[in-house]
Automatic annotation (TrEMBL):
L-histidine binds at Y53, N163, Y203, E279, I280, S281. Monomer. It catalyses: L-histidine + 3 S-adenosyl-L-methionine = hercynine + 3 S-adenosyl-L-homocysteine + 3 H(+). This is Histidine N-alpha-methyltransferase. SUPFAM superfamilies: S-adenosyl-L-methionine-dependent methyltransferases (SSF53335). The lineage of its organism: Bacteria, Bacillati, Actinomycetota, Actinomycetes, Micromonosporales. Belongs to the methyltransferase superfamily. EgtD family. Catalyzes the SAM-dependent triple methylation of the alpha-amino group of histidine to form hercynine, a step in the biosynthesis pathway of ergothioneine. NCBIfam families: egtD_ergothio. The gene is egtD.
Length: 318
């Protein structure tokens, strides 16, 4: 079953608001959620298989090693997954919780109705005893639509929390804590601070897949808002912000140019070399994470990393 709290019209309104705000700002920016149309989602899947992109592999290794332990500790009855996408790593958790015998329901929440419908259909076939209840919604403002239940485990994997700036993270975690009862669980995937010589190539791969993924946001704006971005007139930039400990992805205008966004009746000027920021991907350290969780009312119970210490999965309790 699929429950829809976000329709095409809501999404269109959000896109218009984001593009109007971001392209009128100095410096210019666009939120990363607009990367993910069908092509962008495919490019992201390609990224997860790149030799340079360690987060997906590292997180999968942690979950494979710890899923049974997570099931034994939480004995969760419902697994909620935020930003579930293809739900591939989730199967590790579902299998462990089903073996443990506690799990009755899986609630994937995602903004993409098509991706979610596909995931729900596949899971319903593969897990006939499980109640699969998809929620189409925005994880930052539709958490109230997570169905009631007791002993729920909310998984937010992939390191996507790193796309939020610290103030947004605090608001998100506090909002999540507010919908959970005391004792319920959060399983959080976070990329870790490490040598930028490892991080930067993960966001600037030799094959140029991340560059295509980054530029895809311009194609999305062109297609959805009748704009005329010249995609080839921008270059992909990934830079490590050492102070904030986050990666910034930008699109740099190679020449001075004007872009017309017809549906917004907006004309935007770019200077030669001007950057448009398209994503931040924050990297974490255990102490900072523990502090952020505590500030939102969560207690860190376990912090697991892969053998190389690249990525972490944290189990926290409300
Ligand atoms: C899906 C948000 C976790 O930040 O690493 C991959 C997206 N951006 N390469 C990340 C992404 C560039 C990814 N997240």
């Amino acid at each position: 079953m699929l429950e829809i709290h976000l329709d095409e019209q809501d999404i269109d309104r959000q896109l218009r608001a984001d593009v109007t705000l971001g392209l009128s700002a100095t410096p210019k920016w666009l939120p990363p959620k607009w990367f993910y149309d069908a092509r962008g989602s495919e490019l992201f899947e390609d990224i997860t298989r790149l030799p340079e992109y360690y987060p997906t592999r590292s997180e999968r290794a942690i979950l494979a090693a710890r899923a049974a332990e997570i099931a034994a500790i939480t004995e969760a009855k419902t697994l909620v997954e935020l930003g579930s996408g293809s739900s591939e790593k989730t199967r590790l958790l579902l299998d462990a919780l089903l073996s443990r015998g506690t799990l009755g329901a899986f609630v994937p929440l995602d903004v993409s109705r098509t991706a979610l419908a596909e995931a729900v259909a596949g899971l319903t076939t593969d897990y006939p005893t499980l109640s699969v209840h998809g929620v189409v919604g925005d994880m930052t403002d539709d958490l109230r639509h997570i169905p009631d239940g007791d002993n729920r485990l909310v998984a937010f994997l992939g390191g996507t929390i790193g796309n939020l700036i610290p103030a947004e993270r605090a608001a998100f975690l506090t909002g999540l804590r507010a919908v959970l009862g005391e004792g319920e669980w959060l399983l959080l995937g976070t990329d870790l601070v490490k040598d930028p010589a490892i991080i930067v190539p993960a966001y600037d791969d030799a094959a140029g897949v991340t560059a295509e993924f980054n530029k895809n946001v311009l194609r999305v704006v062109n297609a959805r808002l009748d704009a005329d971005f010249d995609v080839d007139a921008f270059t992909h930039v990934a830079l490590w912000n050492a102070e904030e400990e986050w990666i910034e992805m930008r699109l740099r205008a190679t020449t001075a140019q004007q872009v017309r966004i017809n549906d917004l009746d907006l004309t935007v000027d770019f200077a030669a070399g001007e950057d448009l920021r398209t994503e931040i991907s924050a990297k974490f350290r255990r102490p900072g994470l523990e502090t952020e969780l505590a500030a939102a009312g969560f207690t860190l119970r376990h912090f697991w990393t892969d053998p190389q210490g690249l990525f972490a999965v944290t189990l926290a309790q409300a």
